[in-house]
Specification:
The protein has 88 residues and is an alpha/beta fold. It is built from three helices and three strands. Helix content is 45%, strand content 15%. A three-stranded parallel beta sheet has the order 1-2-3.
Length: 88
């Protein structure tokens, strides 16, 4: 982890050591975590605490989902975005 700028956590949420975001931030690294970030409230609190610590260090803890949407869901989302834009 020493040579990295960003740490990617793409493991299963329920395994021990999931608090990689906390470890990354403590070492001055940005963290990207795959969803789900936790399987219980304590795990969520750990990630939120890492985010707060990251803010103080001008770092980011980001959460994302790598799975692409099926084509039919993508079309539905695009339609919803167009409707929302036209309503404003």
């Amino acid at each position: 982890m020493a040579a990295a700028d960003v740490v990617l956590c793409a493991d299963a949420a329920g395994i021990p050591g999931r608090n990689i975001s906390k470890k990354a931030v403590r070492q001055g690294k940005h963290a990207f975590i795959e969803k789900p970030v936790a399987t219980d409230a304590n795990g969520v609190r750990r990630v939120l605490a890492a985010g707060e610590e990251a803010k103080k260090k001008n770092l980011n803890v980001c959460v994302g989902l790598q799975r692409p949407l099926p084509a039919e869901l993508h079309r539905d989302h695009q339609s919803a975005f167009k409707m929302a834009r036209s309503a404003t």
